[in-house]
Design goal:
Blueprint: H1 2-8, E1 13-14, E2 21-22, H2 27-30, H3 78-81, H4 85-95, H5 123-141, H6 145-162, H7 166-178, H8 183-203, E3 210-211, H9 212-216, H10 218-227, E4 258-259, E5 266-270, E6 286-292, H11 307-327, E7 335-341, E8 349-355, E9 392-398, E10 419-421, E11 430-432, E12 446-447, H12 458-466, H13 470-481, H14 487-500, H15 515-525, H16 543-556, E13 563-568, E14 576-581, E15 590-592, E16 597-598, H17 605-622, H18 630-635, H19 641-644, E17 647-652, H20 691-697, H21 700-716, E18 720-729, E19 744-745, E20 759-767, E21 776-781, H22 785-795, E22 800-803, E23 809-814, H23 823-836, H24 838-841, H25 848-853, E24 857-858, H26 872-890, E25 899-904, E26 928-935, H27 945-967, E27 972-977, E28 988-993, E29 999-1005, H28 1007-1019, H29 1022-1038, H30 1040-1053, H31 1059-1072, H32 1081-1093, H33 1104-1116, E30 1125-1126, H34 1135-1141, H35 1156-1166, H36 1173-1189, E31 1200-1201, H37 1217-1237, H38 1241-1247, E32 1257-1261, E33 1272-1273, H39 1294-1301, H40 1304-1316, E34 1320-1324, E35 1337-1342, H41 1344-1347, E36 1350-1351, E37 1361-1363, E38 1370-1373, H42 1375-1386, ...
Parallel strand pairs: 6-9, 13-15, 26-29, 30-31
Antiparallel strand pairs: 1-2, 3-4, 5-6, 7-8, 7-19, 8-9, 10-11, 10-12, 13-14, 15-16, 17-20, 18-20, 21-23, 22-23, 24-33, 25-26, 27-28, 28-29, 32-35, 32-39, 34-35, 36-38, 37-38, 39-40
Helix pairs in contact: 1-4, 6-7, 14-15, 14-16, 16-17, 21-23, 28-29, 29-30, 31-32, 31-33, 32-33, 33-37
Length: 1404
C-alpha cells in the first residue's frame, strides 16, 4: 500500500532531462474503473446515495458519519497533529526537486509521459492499441450499421439526461475545443521553462549573509567581499541594475536582521498548468513557477512582524538580479521583468517574465549565439521568444511547507506586535510599530504589553500560510482530479464562467475567487461537503453535472453568516469535508483544519455576496426549461457595470488622514431634514489608518473599501441587493487589462505607487425595487436602549421617534421624494457628508439624474416632489374615467341595449404615455384616451360591416344627446371620424372632455365585428387575401388585441416598479430620433418588457438608467431576422431563487423579506397562464412560417410572440424595413458611444440628438411653442410661476380651442403620408412640446426601389415624374416638382428645405 500511495500522490515536477513537465504516476493508478457509458447512469454501491438525471446533490451517506465540528475545533488537537508518518514521508519525499542533470538528451524519450493533451497517461501504448483495433472496426462497420444507429439513439438519450440536452453537450464540447492550448506553443514554452529551471538551479550561486546596513549601502558590501579569500567565495549583492528589494511596509530596521540567498530546495510548476487545466485566453495566461526557499534560512519566530516576508523579498530581488544578469545580451532582449503582487496581495511580490514582440526588439544577428555569464545552457536564439504563445512566467518565491507552527497562525491570532505610546499630554493613544532592534526601544513611554497585541491579523496570517501550501494543495487537487474523468472540463467551464462574471484572476481587486478556489471547492465536494460529511458530487458525474453542482452549492449554502465549510487536507485515503450549519463567522469561510488556512481569505463580504448572487442567477438560468442558457452563461460578457448595476457612483479616493476642512469646527444651524443638524460636528472626518488598522487590513485599499461597505450596508439595508466597490485609476478605466493578473511595478521601485490624486472609487448598487423608494428607514424599538443609542450614533440628528400604525414606537429616518434625486442617492449623500464631510459628498458623481432629466416633468406645482415611479397623475386620469363610466352606465335605461363593459384602451391607462396626463393639455398627442364600449349581445346587429358601423354611430349619437341634455355644463362632447382601419371610413368616435380636464375617445365594439372581418377574409379572392388580412390585423390591433394588451401591461407593471418609467424614457428617445411616429405603442412596450421578464443574466432593472441602457443593449445585439422574441409575460423568478435572493446573505435585516413572498404569490395567482413548452413550440413554428415567406424581413421584421398573441406579428406587421434597420443601427451606435466614451452628460445629449444627415431631405418648420399646452415643464420652474394649463381654456367653443392647440406639423405629415407614402418615408417629432423653442422638422427618405429608373406605363405611376433625356421610355421621380408640391401643402408652416446638405429655396 505504501508504494502504491507513493505513485498516486506524487507532485508534478520539472524533468531535468526533458522540456516537459510530467507526473510520475503510472497509468494503471490513474485509470478510473467506471466506463464512459456507465457515467451517464450512476448508482452508488454500499450506501443510500441516489443520483437523479439532472441533480448534482447526493443524499446522506449512511456508511460514514462525522462528528459535529464547532468553532473550537478550528485548533487541531494533538491527535490531529500525529498524522500517518508513512503517508507524510511518501508525499514529501516525492515533492522535493532533487533532479540530476543529464549530459545527453538521447535518453529523454523514456521519461516523457505527457504532452499536455487530453489523452491518458500512456499515449504510446494507447496508440499501439488503436492501431490494432482500427482494422477490426473497419471490417465490422458495415455489419453493425443498424446496431450503431440504435446505440446512437441510446447515447443521445443519456447525453440529454447528463448534459441537460444534446445541443448543450455539443456546445460544451465546442467550447472546450476552442479553449484548448496549442501543442506547439506548449512545446516552446516548456523548452524555455526547462532552460530557466537549469539556470536557477545551476548558475545562481549562494550569496553571503547581508544585514540591513549592507542592503542600504551596497557599495560597502562589495568592498568587503573583495577582501575575502577567493576560495569558496560567495556572490555579493548586485545592485548595478538599480534594482530595489520589494520590502512591504514598514521596511525592516533591525540591524541584526540577516538576509541570504541559498539554492532553492524545490522548483516546481504549480497552478492550473501543472494540473493540465489551463485554457487559452486572450489575457492572463500565466505559468506559475514555485521556488521554495531552504528551511535553513528561517528561524522559529520568523512568522512575526513581517520577518519571513522580508527574507522572501530579498530572496526574490537577488534571484531577479541574477536572472537579468544571465539574460542580459542582445539576443535575449525580448524578456521583460517586473514585480507583481500575487493576486494583489502586497505581502506577496513575485517576479513576472513577459515576452515582448520580436518586431519591437532591437536588431541583432539571428544566427549568432549570445555571450553568457558562465554555463547557462540556454538556447538564446530567437526561437526562445514565446511572445506568440501569449504566455507569461511568474516566479513565486514560497516558504517550505509546515515551516511555521500553523496553530499560531489561526485567523483569530495576532502575528504583528505593536507597542502603545502612552503620553499623558494627549487624550488619544498613538500606536507605533515596534522597533526592529532592542537597542532602539529605550524610551520609558513604550509598553510591551498592549491590548493591540491581541488584535487578530487574519489577512497577514492567511497570506503567510498560503505561501507555504502551493505544492500541498496541488497534490490535494491532483489526487481527486485523477479519480474524476470530467474534472478538467468542469474546471475549464468554471474558469470561463468566472471570467464572464468579472472574477478574472482570483485577485483581491477582482473578488478573490478564481480558478484555484473553484477547483478546490470541486475537489472538496467530490469528497464531502454535506452536513453529515456526505458527498455533494460523485466521481462519475459529467462536466455539466459537476459545474451545476458547484453553482448550486454556492447559491444555496451560505458560507458567510449562517455556516462554513470545514475540511482537512491530510494525505489520508478518506478526506474529511463537512458543512457546519448555523455557525457562520461573518467572513466567507472554507477552512482547512490541517493547515489552518481559510481558502476564501482573499474574499471580502461584498465580493462573496456578489459571487453568490451570480451563482443564484446562473442556477436559475440552468433550471430554465424553455430557453437555452448556454450563451448567457459561457459566451456573453455579463460584467458590464452600467448594465449590471442599477446605480453607478464615482467618488474621489480619500487618502489616509483625509479631513474635510470645510466641515472642521463648523456648527450646523440648518433644520432642514436633508442636512445633519446634530451629527456632523460629532463625527471625526479624519480617516485614521494607523498601526491598528494596518495590522487588521494590511492595505489601505482594503480598509477604505470595508469602511465604505459597512456604511452603505448599514444605511441602505433592504434597499439594496448587492454592493460592489472597486478602486481604479482614471487613466486605466477605459483600458482593457488583457494581461492583468495583479498590480505590476518595475524593478527599480520598492512597491507599487498608486496615483491617489488621479484615482476614484466606483460603487455599483443592485437595488431592491420593492424598498429602494421607501420614505421611512425604520430603526429599533424605543425600548431597546442599546440599539437606539447605536442607531442615533450612526444617523445623528436626523433620527426621530415616531409611532407607527401597529402601535410600535420606533426610531426612524424620514426622507422626502424628489423628481431627480432618488431616495437611495439622498441616503448615500447624507451618510458620506456625515462621515467624510459635505465637500466630499458633493463630489459624488452619478449620471442617474441626467437620465431622469430626460423624462418630461409634468406641469404641476408639486412635480419637483414626485418620484419618477409616482403614478398619481395617471390615477387622476383613472378617477375621471371612473366618474364618466358611472354616467354612461346610467344611460342604460335610455339606450336600446345596455352597456356591458367600458374598456380603457390607451397608453395613458397603461401609465406608459411619454407625457403624463395633465388636465386640459390639448397639445399632448395622447390627450384623448381611447375607450371601447361593449353592449350586451343581440341578434339584431347588421351582417354587413358598413351597416354595423352605421348602427354603432347611432348608439354614439344617442349617448352624445343624453350627455348634452343632462350634463351640458360639465361635459363637452363632439363627434369625429376614425381612419385607423383601412377601407373602412364609416367608423365614428365620440370625444368627451370631462370637468377635470381629461379627454376620452369612445368607440364601440360588438361581438359581430370580428366575425364579419374574418368572413371577408375567407370569402375574398386570392389576390385580395393579403390585403384583407392586413385589414383584419389592423382591426385586431385597435380593438381586441389592444384590450388584452392593456390589461396585461397593467398587471405586470405592478410587479416591475421601473418598467413604466423605462418605457416612457425609451419612447422619448425614439421621438428624438424621429422613430416614434412609425412604431406602435404596444410594440415599443413589448420590446421594453423583454428586458424585465427575460433579463437573462441580470436581475430585472431597478432604475431608469439601467432599464433604458439594457433596452438599447438588447436591440443592438438582437438579430431579429433569425431570433424571435417569445415573451413569457407571466414569468416570475423561481421560488427557491427568490427565497435565496431575499435571504440575509448581505447581513441585512430580516425586514427585507416582508412582502416579497406575498407579492410573488399574488403575481402567480394573477398571471396563472404561464407559457408552456407547447406554447413556445407553437410560437417558434409561427416564426419559421413567417420567415419562410419573408426571409429578409421586408414585411415583418420584429416577431414578438406572447400567450395572447402567438402569431407574433400583431403589432409588427407591415413595419417599414428602413425604420427597423435604423432602430438597430442607432442602438449599436449608442452602445458603441457609451462603451468608448462612458456615460456622462455629453454622451447622453448625443444619444438624444437626431442624426439628420442620414435623410434625403429635411424640412424645417415654423417654431410653435406647445410645451405648456402639452403639460410639460422644460428646465427649472418655481411653484408660483407654474400656470394651470386650464387657464384661458375656452369651454364654449371647444372645437376651435382644440384646433388651435393641436400640433399642425402632425396634421401636415398625415396629409403628406396620404399623398406620397408610396415613395417617401416621412418622419417628425411626434411630441412637439418637448422642444423648448417649439422647433420641429420633417425628414424624408425616398424608398430605394422607387428612386431607380423605370419604364413608363400608362396608369402605373401615382406621383410626379419626368422623362430621362438619354432614354425617353424611362422615367424617374421629379424631385424638384415634389418639393414644390410639398411646399404648397405646407404653406407658411414650412420655412426651408435641406436636401443632402444643400439648402434650397423652394417656390411655393
Amino acid at each position: 500500500m505504501g508504494s502504491k500511495r507513493k505513485r498516486n500522490d506524487t507532485s508534478i515536477k520539472i524533468k531535468s532531462n526533458s522540456a516537459k513537465f510530467t507526473s510520475k504516476s503510472t497509468s494503471g493508478d490513474s485509470s478510473i474503473q467506471t466506463s464512459s457509458q456507465n457515467n451517464h447512469n450512476i448508482k452508488s454501491n454500499g450506501s443510500s446515495n441516489v443520483i437523479t438525471n439532472d441533480n448534482t446533490s447526493v443524499t446522506k451517506n449512511d456508511t460514514n458519519h462525522s462528528e459535529q465540528i464547532s468553532k473550537k475545533d478550528l485548533d487541531l488537537s494533538e491527535n490531529d497533529e500525529s498524522l500517518s508518518e508513512e503517508n507524510d514521508s511518501d508525499i514529501h519525499s516525492n515533492s522535493k526537486s532533487q533532479i540530476a542533470s543529464k549530459d545527453s538528451s538521447d535518453n529523454i524519450s523514456e521519461d516523457i509521459s505527457d504532452n499536455y493533451s487530453d489523452n491518458s497517461f500512456d499515449e504510446d501504448d494507447e496508440d499501439e492499441d488503436n492501431d490494432k483495433i482500427q482494422p477490426k472496426l473497419k471490417k465490422q462497420k458495415s455489419l453493425n450499421h443498424q446496431q450503431l444507429s440504435a446505440q446512437d439513439v441510446q447515447i443521445a438519450r443519456e447525453t440529454a439526461e447528463v448534459f441537460k440536452s444534446n445541443i448543450f453537450k455539443l456546445k460544451i464540447d465546442e467550447v472546450i475545443k476552442e479553449i484548448k492550448l496549442n501543442q506547439s506553443h506548449l512545446t516552446k514554452i516548456e523548452k524555455f521553462l526547462y532552460s530557466l529551471y537549469n539556470l536557477i538551479n545551476n548558475n545562481i550561486n549562494d550569496s553571503q549573509i547581508f544585514s540591513i546596513s549592507d542592503l542600504n549601502e551596497p557599495n560597502k558590501s562589495k568592498s568587503k567581499s573583495k577582501s575575502k579569500s577567493k576560495t569558496k567565495q560567495k556572490s555579493n549583492l548586485n545592485l548595478n541594475l538599480n534594482l530595489k528589494i520589494p520590502f512591504c511596509d514598514p521596511k525592516p530596521t533591525n540591524k541584526d536582521f540577516k538576509f541570504q540567498y541559498l539554492k532553492p530546495s524545490d522548483i516546481s510548476v504549480v497552478g492550473s498548468y501543472a494540473l493540465k487545466n489551463s485554457i487559452r485566453l486572450p489575457y492572463n495566461n500565466i505559468i506559475d513557477l514555485a521556488i521554495t526557499m531552504p528551511s535553513s534560512l528561517f528561524e522559529k519566530k520568523d512568522y512575526l512582524n513581517y520577518r519571513a516576508f522580508y527574507k522572501r523579498s530579498f530572496y526574490l530581488a537577488y534571484l531577479a538580479s541574477n536572472l537579468i544578469s544571465n539574460f542580459s545580451n542582445d539576443q535575449l532582449n525580448f524578456l521583460d521583468f517586473n514585480y507583481e503582487y500575487l493576486n494583489d496581495d502586497i505581502l506577496t511580490p513575485t517576479l513576472k517574465i513577459d515576452f515582448n514582440n520580436p518586431k519591437n526588439s532591437s536588431k541583432s544577428k539571428s544566427h549568432s549565439k549570445p555571450k553568457s555569464n558562465g554555463n547557462t545552457n540556454i538556447d538564446s536564439s530567437i526561437d526562445c521568444n514565446c511572445y506568440h504563445t501569449n504566455f507569461s512566467i511568474r516566479l513565486i518565491v514560497c516558504f517550505p511547507f509546515n515551516i511555521f507552527d500553523y496553530k499560531k497562525l489561526l485567523p483569530f491570532k495576532n502575528s504583528i506586535r505593536i507597542q502603545q505610546n502612552v503620553n499623558s499630554t494627549q487624550k488619544k493613544h498613538q500606536l507605533q510599530t515596534p522597533p526592529q532592534s532592542s537597542s532602539t526601544s529605550s524610551s520609558n513611554t513604550l509598553q510591551t504589553a498592549s491590548p493591540a497585541n491581541t488584535i487578530p491579523t487574519p489577512i497577514y496570517n492567511s497570506s503567510l500560510i498560503s505561501n507555504t501550501t502551493y505544492n500541498h494543495y496541488l497534490k490535494f487537487i491532483y489526487k481527486t482530479q485523477k479519480l474524476t474523468d470530467s474534472f478538467k472540463e468542469a474546471a475549464n467551464l468554471g474558469r470561463i464562467w468566472l471570467t464572464k462574471k468579472g472574477f478574472l484572476s482570483g485577485s483581491i481587486s477582482n473578488g478573490g475567487f478564481g480558478n484555484f478556489e473553484f477547483t478546490m471547492l470541486m475537489a472538496l465536494l467530490l469528497n464531502g461537503g454535506g452536513q453529515e460529511n456526505n458527498k455533494i458530487l460523485l466521481f462519475g458525474f459529467s462536466s455539466y453535472q459537476l459545474f451545476k453542482g458547484i453553482i448550486k452549492y454556492l447559491a444555496t449554502q451560505d458560507l458567510l453568516t449562517n455556516g462554513h465549510l470545514i475540511f482537512s487536507s491530510t494525505t489520508n485515503d478518506k478526506i474529511y469535508c463537512k458543512y457546519n450549519n448555523n455557525e457562520g463567522f461573518n467572513v466567507p469561510t472554507i477552512f482547512d483544519k490541517f493547515t489552518k488556512l481559510n481558502i476564501l481569505w482573499k474574499m471580502s463580504n461584498y465580493s462573496y455576496n456578489l459571487l453568490r448572487h451570480e451563482a443564484i442567477l446562473t442556477l436559475n438560468a440552468l433550471n430554465e426549461t424553455i430557453n437555452d442558457p448556454f450563451d448567457s452563461i459561457f459566451l456573453k460578457n455579463n460584467n458590464i457595470d452600467y448594465l449590471k448595476y442599477d446605480i453607478n457612483l464615482e467618488i474621489p479616493y480619500p487618502t489616509p488622514g483625509f479631513n474635510d476642512k470645510n466641515e472642521k469646527n463648523k456648527k450646523s444651524t440648518n433644520n432642514d431634514n436633508n442636512n445633519d443638524t446634530n451629527g456632523t460636528e460629532t463625527i471625526n472626518n479624519i480617516i485614521n489608518f494607523g498601526p491598528l488598522e494596518k495590522i487588521s487590513f494590511v492595505s489601505y485599499d482594503n480598509f477604505i473599501q470595508t469602511k465604505l461597505y459597512n456604511i452603505l450596508l448599514t444605511g441602505l439595508k433592504e434597499r439594496v441587493h448587492q454592493i460592489s466597490i472597486k478602486i481604479v485609476e482614471k487613466k486605466n478605466i477605459d483600458k482593457n487589462h488583457k494581461n492583468y493578473s495583479g498590480l505590476q511595478f518595475p524593478l527599480n521601485r520598492r512597491k507599487y505607487l498608486f496615483n491617489t490624486e488621479d484615482s476614484i472609487i466606483k460603487i455599483g448598487l443592485i437595488l431592491n425595487q420593492d424598498y429602494c423608494e421607501k420614505l421611512v428607514t425604520k430603526g429599533p424599538l424605543n425600548s431597546e436602549k442599546e440599539a437606539v443609542e447605536k442607531f442615533k450614533k450612526f444617523w445623528g440628528g436626523k433620527s426621530q421617534l415616531r409611532r407607527f400604525k401597529d402601535g410600535s414606537i420606533n426610531e426612524c429616518i424620514v426622507w422626502n421624494y424628489s423628481y431627480d434625486k432618488p431616495i437611495v442617492l439622498q441616503i448615500i449623500k447624507y451618510l458620506f457628508a456625515r462621515f467624510f464631510g459635505k465637500s466630499f459628498a458633493s463630489k459624488i458623481a452619478t449620471e442617474l439624474p441626467c437620465f431622469i432629466s430626460k423624462l418630461p416633468k409634468p406641469l404641476l406645482p408639486e412635480s419637483n416632489n414626485l418620484s419618477i415611479i409616482n403614478t398619481s397623475t395617471f390615477h387622476n386620469l383613472k378617477a375621471s374615467f371612473d366618474k364618466l363610466s358611472k354616467i354612461l352606465f346610467e344611460f342604460n335605461r335610455d339606450l336600446p341595449l345596455n352597456i356591458k363593459a367600458i374598456n380603457p384602451n390607451s397608453s395613458g391607462f397603461r401609465y406608459s404615455s411619454v407625457l403624463q396626463p395633465i388636465p386640459f393639455a390639448i397639445s399632448n398627442p395622447d390627450f384623448f384616451n381611447e375607450v371601447l364600449l361593449q353592449f350586451e349581445s343581440s341578434k339584431k346587429w347588421p351582417d354587413a360591416i358598413n351597416g354595423l358601423e352605421d348602427t354603432k354611430t347611432a348608439f354614439l349619437l344617442k349617448i352624445y344627446e343624453l350627455l348634452n341634455n343632462k350634463y351640458k355644463d360639465r361635459y363637452k362632447a363632439f363627434m369625429t371620424s376614425d381612419k385607423s382601419i383601412p377601407y373602412n371610413n364609416n367608423i365614428k368616435i365620440l370625444n368627451i372632455i370631462t370637468p377635470e380636464g381629461y379627454g376620452f375617445s369612445i368607440k364601440v365594439l360588438t361581438e359581430r365585428d370580428e366575425i364579419l372581418y374574418l368572413r371577408a377574409v375567407s370569402n375574398c379572392s386570392k389576390d385580395k387575401r393579403n390585403l384583407l388580412e392586413e385589414v383584419y390585423l389592423k382591426f385586431n390591433q385597435n380593438y381586441i388585441g389592444s384590450i388584452k394588451h392593456t390589461r396585461r401591461i397593467l398587471l405586470i407593471s405592478h410587479h416591475f416598479q421601473y418598467y413604466l418609467a423605462t418605457v416612457r424614457l425609451f419612447k422619448r428617445w425614439l421621438d428624438d430620433q424621429l422613430l416614434y411616429c412609425h412604431l406602435n405603442e404596444e410594440l415599443i412596450e413589448l420590446i421594453v418588457l423583454k428586458v424585465f421578464v427575460d433579463s437573462e443574466y441580470w436581475l430585472p432593472p431597478s432604475s431608469i438608467e439601467n432599464g433604458f441602457l439594457r433596452v438599447l443593449y438588447f436591440i443592438a445585439n438582437w438579430n431579429w431576422r433569425e431570433n424571435p422574441i417569445i415573451l413569457d409575460i407571466s414569468k416570475k423568478l423561481d421560488q427557491d431563487f427568490l427565497s435565496v435572493l431575499n435571504s440575509d446573505s448581505n447581513g441585512q435585516n430580516q425586514e427585507s423579506n416582508i412582502g416579497n413572498d406575498n407579492k410573488s404569490d399574488n403575481l402567480k395567482d394573477i398571471l396563472s397562464d404561464k407559457l408552456t413548452i407547447k406554447d413556445y413550440q407553437v410560437s417558434m413554428s409561427n416564426f419559421l412560417k413567417v420567415r419562410k415567406i419573408d426571409p429578409n424581413g421586408l414585411r415583418t421584421q420584429f416577431f414578438i410572440s406572447t400567450k395572447d398573441d402567438p402569431s407574433g406579428i400583431l403589432w409588427s406587421n407591415n413595419q417599414l424595413l428602413p425604420i427597423a434597420a435604423r432602430l438597430t443601427a442607432l442602438s449599436k451606435v449608442a452602445m458603441n458611444l457609451i462603451s468608448q466614451q462612458g456615460i456622462n452628460a455629453l454622451t447622453l445629449n448625443i444619444l438624444f440628438k437626431p442624426a439628420l444627415n442620414d435623410y434625403d431631405f429635411v424640412i424645417e418648420t415654423k417654431s410653435i411653442k406647445l410645451s405648456k399646452s402639452s403639460g410639460i415643464i422644460l428646465g427649472k420652474a418655481f411653484k408660483n410661476l407654474i400656470v394651470d394649463s386650464s387657464q384661458g381654456f375656452n369651454h364654449e367653443n371647444i372645437s376651435d380651442e382644440i384646433a388651435n392647440k393641436i400640433d399642425p406639423v402632425s396634421e401636415l405629415v398625415n396629409e403628406l403620408n396620404g399623398k406620397y407614402s408610396n415613395i417617401i418615408i416621412f418622419s417628425y417629432h411626434k411630441i412637439a412640446g418637448l422642444n423648448n423653442k417649439g422647433e420641429n422638422v420633417i425628414t424624408g427618405l425616398f424608398i430605394p426601389s422607387m428612386v431607380n429608373n423605370k419604364k413608363f406605363r400608362i396608369g402605373s405611376v401615382g406621383y410626379n415624374i419626368k422623362a430621362i433625356e438619354e432614354n425617353k421610355d424611362e422615367i424617374i421621380i421629379n424631385k424638384d416638382s415634389l418639393f414644390a408640391e410639398i411646399a404648397r401643402l405646407g404653406g407658411d408652416l414650412i420655412t426651408s428645405f435641406q436636401y443632402k446638405g444643400m439648402i434650397k429655396n423652394v417656390k411655393k
